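haha ok so turns out i had the wrong file open the whole time. this is the CORRECT one, sorry everyone. sequence first:
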Amino acid sequence: MINIEEIKKPIAAEMELFETKFRASMKSSVPLLDRISTYIVKRKGKQMRPMFVFLSAAMCGGITEATYRGAALIELLHTATLVHDDVVDDSNERRGFFSINALWKNKIAVLVGDYLLSRGLLLSIDNNDFALLKIVSEAVKKMSEGELLQIEKARKLDIKEDVYYEIITNKTASLIASCCAVGAASAGADAKIVKQMHDFGELVGIAFQIKDDLFDFGSEEKIGKPTGIDIKESKMTLPLIYALNNSEKSVRRHIVNIVRNHNTEEKKVAEVIAFVHANGGIGYATKRMKEYRQRAYELLTGFEDSVYSESIRALVNFTTEREN
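then structure:
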């Protein structure tokens, strides 16, 4: 399978420059904030979000200064939401690193999130990037709505497939959609192309989240992290929803009872995982993921073949074929 560095090659120089600009966008005269900002930058992941921004811009007219600002805006606002999420979830870790609240306590974490949010807003306003700010602000609104809808539904555990798609479209797909739309808009593409890239990113985001859901039912040795996390958090994901909808009422009631009342017991969680495998949940979710990925590929057919369109296809493939 192609690795992330290969996919990044056509925009490697731009991504390197982006790192410098992104660090500058987080600068503060307060030493504590600077220390925390340095820590945040150090624990960055695969950088798929800025890659979608730069590849989309390159495909839609070319990378500009606005592209760098758009990518920084997305990273600032997204990082702010993650810092706040860790406080809300009382989480001490993110991607194997201590969370901000674990190291500096909740009050400082909330203030850091607020600071990152304000830096993103000012970056856009100071440069008159109002179109980019609108795209990203819409995504942040949807992410909050998706999270709240999931919390509301988790109480009843009555999520149907259409509600599941509404949740993940808002929670996950809206951010990747904004990356692709921001890239296109920063390159000066017209409204139709910006919308097309937004739709493309949304489809990729849905496929990405289904893939993420599938990890919860995999092998810990293979994926390198614990499984059953969603079950322990009473989250209804696509493999589980399908398996429940295709089982007898008494079995369904038993499994829902485990998810609601016994989700901290390892044997019970293993029973739910086995139930999902036995009732076709994995195969169904994989099929749906591939359908969304195919629809995303189809939205790229009108673009001229280039190293950038080839890389963005490879990035889509990477998001849905990754092992962890």
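The first helix runs from residue 4 to 8.
again sry for the mixup
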